Amino acid sequence: MNKIDLDDCPIALAQKILGGKWALRILYNLSTGILRFGELNRQMPELTQATLTKELRRLESFQLINRKVYPEVPPRVEYSLAEMGLKLLPVLRELEIWGDEYKKNTLNNN
């Protein structure tokens, strides 16, 4: 079996970065603007705080999101899309359209 070279295959690279179970949902939620950790957590109640923290750190390491910590007590942390995350907005919008169409044409016919 041939190993996929991430330098040669942009789809494999995108899959590696966006392939996490929650990555697209987090990016989609952040597409509406700056959100605090608690706000993100409320929008995805099926996620544990530990999993959300792990996914946010992973997306930050890929430079898709920004994390801003305010020196307050208690600490306030805000998340937003970074420049590379903003470039995903057209893709996220198309996925939203595709998901709606799939749901309408496939799931509702059963």
Automatic annotation (TrEMBL):
Keywords linked to the UniProt accession: DNA-binding, Transcription, Transcription regulation
Q: Which residues form the signal peptide?
A: none
Annotated HTH hxlR-type domain ranges read 9-107
**Pfam families per UniProt:** HxlR
List membrane-spanning regions: none
Fetch the SUPFAM superfamilies from UniProt.
Winged helix' DNA-binding domain
Q: What is this protein called?
A: Winged helix-turn-helix transcriptional regulator
